[in-house]
Amino acid sequence: MDIQSLVTAQRAYFNTGATLSLSARKAALKRLREAIKAREADISAALQTDLNKSPTESYMCETGLTLSELSFVDRRLGRWMRDRPHLTPLAQFPARSFTVQEPYGVALIMSPWNYPFLLTIEPLIGAIAAGNCAVVKPSAYSPAVSAVIREMLADCFPPEFVAVVEGGRAENQALLDQKFDYIFFTGGVAVGREVMARAARHLTPVTLELGGKSPCIVDATAQLDLAAKRLVFGKLLNCGQTCVAPDYLLIDRRVKDRFLAYLRKWTVAMYGSEALDNQGYVRMVNRKHFDRVMGLIDQSKVVFGGKGDPGTLKIQPTVLDGVSPDDPVMREEIFGPVLPVLTFDRVEEALEFVNSRPHPLALYLFSQDKRVQRLFLRRALFGGGCINDTIIHLATSRMAFGGVGSSGMGSYHGKDSFNTFSHRKGIVSKSALFDLPVRYAPYTPAKKKLLRLFLR
Question: 209, 216, 239, 333: which one is catalytic?
């Protein structure tokens, strides 16, 4: 089935109403859950093939989070689907006001390679829960996971309900030529701009989950040892190939040297004195990405690390000191295990630096000072983040996750996923018992007085 025929078939299937009932949605989510659990070993093996992820990291960051999201959505879906009553203005009395959540129709989900299972299936959960059909496009850079997803979804659902389109740029272009009712894209800023431009031709709404340079700020009041431990966890998870990974460190000059010593300590504790020999250490996804990240490392500024193995595509955890805002490593999102370090003398300088750059997807602040915490929460614009930790704000179904400005638009996770793939339709159901005459012409002085009483 070609792409145009596939979209046409899905729209025809959606128009039958087969996806709309609560029982149909819950049955689809149940089939998906059972399929994931049955293929857990296959998913883990595919993630190891594409990225060298260990089984533990694969479950913690991909399969387990997906199953958790499925459980959360399934338990609450009936409540989310109910019509929501709203108070009716006095001018519209007697009437009943309410909102109805309805699916958009046929959704396109385009996912990246860095968390290829999680970031494909989690949006799909929202699309199915909201009652949509969906075309799923995994990344060509993670072919093993893409193949598992294709086989799994083909076993779960007929293609007119959920289908997978594999391939590269040509398939992406062919998909974006179609008129979808919603597009959910996760990936880089440049491709996100193209997706939005192509969607605009059809006036298709989009969610863009992008990225950017997410700062980590450490002030003099931080618990340095613990902060370093949590920063190393967030930075080296998936070898830095995480859209919300701490991209660079802004640290109070007075505590920098002590903090860098703690960074070295925890890097060795987690990955060994030579991470390139660690069998569980994730690699770069391909040679192009390996070469790009290695090209960002200025050897004259390396505190530790700095080496890579082109044979295994692994790069040592690397810290760069004495970095300038104009250095190449500060001009683009790193997406690798390289941490540039910049210093400040006052926290206000750090805030000004963050706000002078494109809005990041995440911000991490390590500080025990409540004033400093309030300063960054109220004055810095970013998608989401943590105080005294990294990464974990996205590992919950109870909070929205998304970007702002150049780091994206829209949000998902839990109920926000359901809302993202739903159109909220406002309805007023008017009584026929009697009809207030005030809104009808001719407009007399008495009606004018009544309108001023109602509308103020």
Answer: 209
